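Q: For a teaching session next week I want to show students how multiple molecules come together into a single three-dimensional assembly. I've collected the sequence lines for a complex. Could you give me the predicted C-alpha cells for the whole thing so I can convert them for display?
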Amino acid sequence: MNSGAEKIVGMSYDVVIIGGGIVGCALARELSRYDLRLALIEKEVEVGFGTSKTNSGIIHSGHHASPDTLKGRLEWAGNQRWSDLARDLKFGFKRIGELLLALQPEDLHYLQLLKKQGEDKGVPGLEIWSPQRIQKEEPNLNRTILQALHAPTAAVINPYEACFGLIECAQQNGAELFCGCPVLAINQTGADFSIQTPQGVFHSRIVLNAAGVFADRVAAMVGAADFKIHCRKGEEYLLDRRLQGIVTRLIFPVPTATSKGVLIIPTVDGPIMVGPTAEEVNNREDLSTSFAGAAKIFAAVHQYCKAISERDTITEFAGLRAVAETNDFVIGPSPVKGFFNVAGIQSPGLTAAPAIATYVTEMLRCEGLKLAEKPVWKAEIDGPFRFARMTQQQRQAAILQDPAFGRIVCRCEAVTEAEVRYAIRHGARTLDGVKFRVRAGMGRCQGGFCTMRVMALLSETLGLPLTEITKRGHGSEVCCPRQDNLSVGDGR
Amino acid sequence: MKSPLRSRYDVVIVGGGPAGLAAALGARQAGVEHILIVDREIEAGGILNQCIHSGFGLHYFKEELTGPEYAERFIRNVQSDQVEILTDSYVLDISPALQLEIISGGYGHLQLQAQSVVLAMGCRERTRGSIRTPGFRPAGVMTAGLAQKMVNMHGVLPGRRIAILGSGDIGLIMARRLSLEGCDVTGVYELQPHCSGLTRNQVQCLDDFGIPLHLSATVAFIHGRDRVERLTIAPVNHELIPDLSRSWDVACDTLLLSIGLIPENELSTRLRLRMDPATGGPQVTSNLETSLPGVFACGNVLHVHDLVDFVSEESLRAGRFAGEVAIGMRRPSDNISLQAGENIASCVPQSLSPDREQIIYLRVKRPLKNCVLTIGDRYEKSFRMLVPAEMIRLTLAPELLDRYFGEMLKIDVRLREAT
Amino acid sequence: MLEKRRLTCIGCPMSCPLELVIIDGEIREITGNDCKRGEAYARQEYTAPCRMVSTTIACNSGLWPRLPVKTVTAVPKAEVMAVARALHTLEIEAPVQIGQVILDDIAGTGIAVIACRSLPSAPNSK
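A: Of course. Below is the structure for the complete assembly, covering every listed component.
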C-alpha cells in the first residue's frame, strides 16, 4: 500500500528506483522477481501522476521507430509483452490496430518505407489499404485519404491503470513504495548512496534514475549530468460518448520530425480522444492547455475526420514528454558507478516500458548485481473489479457478497461504492487517485455529481475531515472549513 | 435483504426530484394502483434539497417557498398517496419491453416489469471541458451546483475568494449564498452581452452585495498548479473570441461554473429514443410520450426549465398520461407536427393533437422587445419582452385546432413592425 | 438636497431601468418604468427595501450536517448580513420538523426563523 509521511526511513536497500511513472513501476515489478531489498520513491502523491497519467495510452504497433535506435529496438519487444501484463494485472487492454493515413501524394512513399521497416523488425500483418478498403473499414474517415498503412498489432490501455497494477504487483512481492517523497539531494560514500527526502534518508547500493522530466536534475545531484532533458508538451482532448465508435482503430497521420502528429484515439474505455500537440516548453510543470492547442488539434483532425468537432469535448489536459538531446532513450550506467539512468523516455516509452525493465535488469546483471530469483513470485494481482464490465449474473453475485456493489457513486461511468472502497484500500489517497483507478468522475459530468460522495468515502476510510481531502496531493484541497464562531465539526 | 417490492408495477418513475414526485401524483390521478419512484440519492427531492433559497412555488402553491419546503410538500403528498419510493437505487437499464434493471443499496439487484415508465432524471451542469477553458487543472474549479451541495448539505466551503463564470441562475444564487457565508465574491463573468439569469437574481444576488457582472467577458486562462491562484479574464468580440490584448488578471482560489444545464439522457440514449438536439431531451408527443410507446419524459430531462412550478405542472400531466397507458387507455395520437421557427430556440412538445387543451413550452433565441408570437395562422400573442432566460408557456384551447387540416404548425416570434 | 438613484425593476423580464429623483429624502419623480409595477417597486426599494434570508445552521446529529432555515418574513436589507452571521452561530439537535421555530427573534429584528425541512437523525448517531 501507499505509505504516508509517518514511515520512519533510514533503511538500506539494494536498489532504489527514483520515479513512479510507467518505467519506474515496470522496473519495480521486474526487479521484485529477485531477492533484493527494493524501494521506489515518487515525488507525487501517487504513482503514475506525472507524465504517465497524461500519456495517450497507445501501445504502438512496433514499426514506427527505426531499429537503429534503442527506442526502436525496445518498441516491438515491449509491444508483445502487454497482453500478458494486462491479463495478469487486470487492466483494460484492446488490440485495435492502427491506420496510418497518406493524405498527400508525397506521403505514399513513407507508407512503403514504414511497411518495410516494420517487416524487417518482424512486425506482422502490415498492409497497405486502398481508399475503398479504408471506406469499408472506417466509413467515417474523409474520402480524400489516398492510402493507409494498417498495423493490427497496435493496442490501447489506460497508462495510469498499468502503473497502479505494476506497483501493486511489485509491492505484493516485497517492493516498498514511498509516495509524496521528492528527492532533495543524493550523496555518495563509497558504494553507498544516501538519498535525502522529506520522509528521511534512503540508503542504497544502486540507484535507478527514472525521474522522467526531472531525470537530468536528479542525475546532476550525483554529478552524473551527461545528458539534458527538455520538455515537449502535448495537449489532449477527450470527447463525449456520442462519438464513440466513429473510428474503431487508432488513426495516425504521417509523422513530422517532432511528433507522430495529431491522432484519433478510441480509448480503451470507449470514448474518443484527439491529440496530442507537440510544443517545446521551458517550464517542467507547464501542464496548461491553450486556445492555440485546441485549434491546432481540431484543424488537424478535420483533415481526416470531419465529424469530430470541438463541441464534443468533455475534458482536456496536457502532459510533458521527457526528450533527451539524442532524441533516443538514455538508458545505461552513468559516469558515477552504481547510478543508472533510465531517462529520456519519449514515445514509444509506454510501449517499450516492459522491455525497458527487462533490458535494465539484464544490464544490472552484467554490471555485477546478484539476481537470485525468489522461490515464490506472484505475477498476478486480484482486482480491481469493474461493475460496468460485469454481466447481469456477475452483478447479482457481487451485490450478494458486498452490498456496496449496489450503490452507484458515479452515474456517468456506473462506478459503485465497492469499487471506490477497493481503490482506497489499494492505495488511492486523492480524488484523482480514485478517478484514475475506477473512473469515478471521468465521465460526462466530470465529477459534478460524484465528487462529494467520493470525498465522503475518502474522508470516512482515511479518517480525515472533508477539508483535508485533496485532488492530487497537498495544496490541492477541494474545499475549506466554514468560519463560524461556533465549532461545527469538520463537516463529515 | 429481501425486497419488499413487487415484480410488476403499473408505472415506474425514474428519478425522485420535482419531476418524478409530480409524475407519481399524476399517475395516481389517472387511477393506477402500483406506482414506484426510483431515486439514486438517500432521500427524494432531487436538487431542490440543496436549493435552500426561496422563490419556488409562486405559480403552483401560490406562495413563496424554499427548495426543501417545496420538495417536502410533494414528498408528503406522494407518501399519503401510497406511492412507493425506492431510494439509494439506480436504474441501470430499461429494455424496450419496459423491463427495468435496478441496483439498490438496500435490496441488491432487482428486475421489475413496468406497464409504463416516466423518465424524470433531471439534468447535469456543463463543465470546464465543454467550453475548453485554457490553463492549468488545479483544484478549485467546479460547477456552481457542486459548490451549492458543498455549502448547503455538507457544511464546507468551496473556497474563500470566488470568481464565477457564467451568469446562469445557479451562479447568481451562489454569489449571494457565498457572500452570506463570508466569502469574497470577486465578480461574475458572462460570455454573452446579456445576463443569462433572471433579473430578480441579478438584482438581489449581485447588486445587493456589490458584486460586479462583467458582460461579454470570459476566463481566458486558469493559473495555479495545485489550487486556483488567479484567472486571466478577457473581453470577447461579437464572435465571442477573447481579446487577450485587453485582458486582466483576478486573484481568487475558486472558479465556479454556471454555464448551462444539459438534460441527463443516458438512459434515453440507451433506449434509442428519438432525441431533439434543440432541447437535448427526447422528442415527445403532446402526451409527453417519447418515440418508444409507454415511455414518457418530463422535467429537466425533457428540456431545461427555469421554474420548478412548470416542472411540476408538466410532470403531473406526464404521470397522468403514463397512468392512462398503464391501464389501457389510449388517447388519439398526434397528427400535427410542431416546429420551432423564427427566433425560437426550442419547443416542447414536438407534435400536437387537436382533441384537447395543449400546453406548449418554448424558449426564444435572443432577447426580443415588442414582438408577436404566432403559431401558424391559428394563434397570435403580443409580448413586450421575451428573453432566453425565461421559458414561455402557452395554452392552446382545443377549438384553436379543431378545424385545422394541415400537418405542420410553425412557431415564430417576430418584432412588431414599427408603425 | 437632490439625489438620483438607479434601480432595475424586477417585476417582469422587461427589467426597466428606473431612475428616482429624490429631494430631501422624498421621491419626487420616477422615470424609466413601462408600467405601474415599476413605480411601486421603486418606492418599496427606496423607502423600505427588505429581503428574505435563507441559510443553513449546524445540525451535526442530522442526516446532513446542515439544516436549511429561513426568516418567516423579509428582513430589512441592511440587516441581512447581521441576520446571516447570527444564524451561523446556532446549532440544533436532530430530529427537526419542517416549520419548527428555531428562534423567535433573530438579531433583534423581531422576526422568527423556521426550519425549511424535516431532518431525521443520522443513521449511526444515537
